[in-house]
Design a protein that fits this description.
Strand content: 15-25%
Bound molecules: inosinic acid
Number of strands: 20
Strand order of the largest sheet: 9-7-5-2-10-1-11-15-19-20
Number of domains: 2
CATH topology of the largest domain: Adenylosuccinate Synthetase, Chain A, domain 1
Number of helices: 11
Largest sheet: 10 strands, mixed
Distance between the termini: 5 Å
CATH class of the largest domain: Alpha Beta
CATH architecture of the largest domain: 3-Layer(aba) Sandwich
Shape: globular
Length: 430
């Protein structure tokens, strides 16, 4: 019986992980967000209601699930409080069901200001960040100057630490970027006010997780972003500042690798990317317009139009290797319903040497052009289908081809945004 399941993205984020976490959470006791911050946007549709979560684990919409935001996440307390209130307004009550690690680092207003100013200065060379302060907050963590959630428990120490870090940021913001300076007392007041709301949630989440594992509870680890945005293994420097591949679960929670039973890689039936950076299968034609519109490919955090492209089999195989994936979940299959033919990149060709590569380094994609295989489209509605045998033959063929390219089975297929528009090909908990 598989108990501990990781759900992570194989592409550049926005694969639809949130919906799958929500769908599988009905079978789990705990759901854990383990890296990233409110740069993530997980869109869920429950009872015709659209809910977008940025920090709160997606499984929490089920009334008996316990949510954990573990040490690997960088937390903006003001955003977290906003999200808690939004859920309350929508009649989702999470009292006594959400816990936050005392060793998670904070995102504060000066991180956001620096992120935005740096991007502005970079101009055409900008990373295209979400502007949520993610990079500067992780820099502080590595430089050992972060304010952490646990620091909120000692007002005096918090005040001293905060004054120091605000001075550090003001130096850069004012002198380099001509930004207005921050007053640490204002930030302190806001932090202490929000602290009252989250106080009872703060704990040592590692201990909670060890105990859950010991008691054989089912845990879902919810990834954010995607493998190709990983700080070490992605398309650097056009990446996020955390490990969105499997290692992020280990460092971001304190749970060891032997405790992970099943790793599900979520991939869209095509590709998208927001922000700048290489995207070999990117489309610039009518099909881009079609995918954007039919797939509603606009960022749930920033509203930016996502770049679209064909499914990239080389990148998918890379994600399988990087994450030791057990199986795939294919999302948004229904978006392809009206296409006469569908392409999948099966290799790259180096345009200088004309060599063909079925595996490649994602550090350097310059001169790499995709080599495609073309499949017939099905030109039939698949949205809402819940059994694999009800899919048109051409759609079943497409799934089989993806399995062959990736070398692992497809265990779940999503055919629409609603919780139940889902095909469970295999019971993954067995
Ligand atoms: P940051 O994480 O805000 O620093 O942004 C770095 C890169 O990651 C940018 O290209 C963002 O567009 C991308 N990114 C960050 N979070 C997400 C996400 O949740 N989905 C898709 N792209 C993301």
């Amino acid at each position: 019986m598989k108990k501990n399941i990781v759900i992570l993205g194989t592409q550049w984020g926005d694969e639809g992980k949130g919906k799958i976490v929500d769908y599988l959470s009905r079978y789990s006791a705990y759901v854990v967000r383990y890296h990233g911050g409110h740069n993530a946007g997980h869109t869920l549709v429950v009872d015709q209601k659209k809910i977008v979560l940025h920090l709160i684990p997606s499984g929490l919409l089920h009334p008996d699930v316990i949510g954990i935001i573990s040490n690997g996440v960088v937390i903006s307390i003001s955003e977290l409080v906003k999200e808690i209130e939004m859920l309350k307004k929508n009649n989702f009550f999470i009292d006594k069901r959400l816990f936050i690690s005392n060793s998670a680092s904070l995102i504060l207003p000066f991180h956001i200001a620096l992120d935005l100013e740096r991007e502005k200065k970079l101009g055409v060379n900008a990373i295209g960040t979400t502007g949520r302060g993610i990079g500067p907050a992780y820099e502080d963590k590595i430089a050992r100057r972060s304010l952490r959630i646990g620091d909120l428990n000692n007002e005096k120490k918090l005040s001293i630490k905060l004054e120091k870090i605000v001075n550090y940021y003001n130096d850069q913001l004012v002198s380099i970027y001509k930004h207005k300076s921050f007053d640490y007392k204002v930030i302190l007041k806001d932090l202490l006010e929000s602290k009252n709301i989250i106080n009872d949630m703060i704990t040592d989440t590692n201990i909670m997780l060890y105990s859950a594992i010991k008691n054989k509870k089912t845990i879902i680890f919810e990834g954010a972003q995607g493998s190709l945005l990983d700080i070490d293994h992605g398309t650097y420097p056009y990446v996020t500042s955390s490990n969105s591949t499997i290692g992020g679960v280990i460092t971001g929670t304190g749970v060891g690798p032997k405790s992970l039973d099943y790793i599900l890689g979520v991939t869209k039936a095509y590709s998208t990317r927001v922000g700048n950076g290489p995207f070999p299968t990117e489309l610039f034609n009518d099909i881009d317009n079609y995918l954007s519109k039919k797939g509603n490919e606009f960022g749930s955090t920033t509203g930016r139009k996502r770049r679209t492209g064909w499914l990239d089999g080389v990148a998918l195989r890379y994600a399988v290797q990087l994450n030791s994936l057990s199986a795939l979940c294919i999302t948004k299959l229904d978006v392809l319903d009206n296409l006469k033919e569908i392409k999948v990149c099966i290799a790259y060709q180096n345009m200088n040497t004309l060599e063909i590569h079925t595996n490649t380094s994602f550090n350097n994609l310059e001169n790499m052009k995709p080599v495609y295989e073309i499949y017939p489209g099905w030109m039939e509605k698949t949205s809402g289908i819940t059994k694999i045998e009800d899919l048109p033959n051409a759609a079943q063929h497409y799934i089989k081809c993806i399995e062959k390219i990736a070398g692992i089975p497809v265990d779940i297929i999503s055919t629409g945004p609603n919780r139940n528009d889902t095909i469970l090909v295999r019971n993954i908990f067995l």
